[in-house]
Amino acid sequence: MSADQEHHLRNPGTPLLPAMFEGIEVNRSAAERRASGIAASRSVKKDHQAAYLLRAIQCIDLTTLAGDDTPGKVARLCAKARQPLRPDLIAALGIGDLNLTTGAVCVYPTMVPHAVKALEGSGIPVASVATGFPAGLTPLPLRLAEITYAVEQGAREIDIVITREHVLLGNWQALYDEIAAMREACGEAHMKAILATGDLGPLTNVYRASMVAMQAGSDFIKTSTGKEGVNATLPVSLTMLRALRDYGDQTGYKIGFKPAGGLKTAKDAMNWLFLMKEELGGPWLKPDLFRIGASSLLGDIERQLEHHVTGRYASADRHAMS
Ligand SMILES: O=C[C@H](O)COP(=O)(O)O
Q1: What's the complex ipTM?
Q2: Domains of the chain, residue spans
Q3: Whole-angstrom Cα distance, residue 221 to residue 238?
């Protein structure tokens, strides 16, 4: 995490403690009600809205995870991470001193050196997916070697994927052991555990997998790869945040949260910021504990900030296409 971010004691994990999750059942309709209440309840004054959107930018893991990624495409993404808004908008918003950047850039392992080079001197960390992303169905030693490779190339954050089978079969020990091994392979790099919640079935499984991931030493828990049929939703996020809160109450450690997949609009960003604020409070509105994984969210945020500044939307042909 970058030097100007607050430092929390890193979660060392615990032994596997099934008593912390085995008795928990999550009621889907209650979670859906609570989540839609959060989405509906927000009424933010205009200036506050701009401040929230700037905060959202600071929490974005600006992502490209596509088969046609190239060093050039990654370099363009990194330029956007360094300067997420047009200079005239920065000036009009009066935030020249803010040094506004995204939270990180997130790429595939072989793109890490290109991202590291393009971000040199910016303080923006490079995150790498690893461990057989997105399905994770690669032998464990190869998955661990992939982490080692990404860290050696300069990734400071590693987004791992779990073996969904372990959750679906309730094999918590196997899940714990694989995540603990991944955390060890990460070393100093912070680890985000992608649960791929769209593959996990009932929300009770989401809660239990979240708890095991934290017990195994994850720094962040993350909803989705962006490649499942269903990615980040508010009820799933709420379930993960309740697990995160319970883990914090019982261990004293603050775990980060990263919704990812399908988040494309400024309204999405606002909904998730509100969810964080209502469930966990101020500390979870900052990039050391909150990231939004997104490949195409920044464009709409920029568009809404332009509207805030000028009172109108620029025509589509003035907006960047990526
Ligand atoms: O981790 C980030 C996700 O892969 C991004 O998904 P997205 O392309 O739907 O924004």
Answers
A1: 0.93
A2: 26-313
A3: 12
Residue 73 falls in the annotated catalytic set: no
Spatial CB neighbours of 201, under 8 Å, sequence gap ≥ 6 = 168
Query: Amino acid identity of 295?
Result: S
Is the pLDDT confidence value at 131 over 90?
yes
User: 298-310 vs 46-58: helix axis angle to the nearest 10?
Assistant: 150
CA distance 311 to 115: 35
| Ligand 1 atom at minimum distance from 294 CA | 10
CA distance 200 to 116: 34
What's the rounded Cα separation, in Å, for the pair 282 and 151?
A: 31
If you average pLDDT over every residue of the chain, what do you get?
94
286 annotated active-site: no
The per-residue pLDDT for range 167-193, each reduced to its tens digit, is 999 999 999 999 999 999 999 999 999
CB distance 294 to ligand 1 below 6 Å:
yes
Question: Of 192, 222, 254, 268, which one is the catalytic site residue?
Answer: 222
Question: What phi, psi does 108 have (nearest 5°)?
Answer: -75, 160
Model confidence pLDDT, tens digit, residues 270-297: 999 999 999 999 999 999 999 999 999 9
Class for domain 26-313, per CATH? alpha beta
What pairs with residue 191 in β-bridges? 158
Is 159 considered catalytic here? yes
Q: What is the pTM of this model?
A: 0.95
Query: CB burial class (10 A; 0-12, 13-18, 19+) of residue 215?
Result: buried
CB of 84 shorter than 6 A to ligand 1:
no
CA-nearest residue, atom 6 of ligand 1:
261
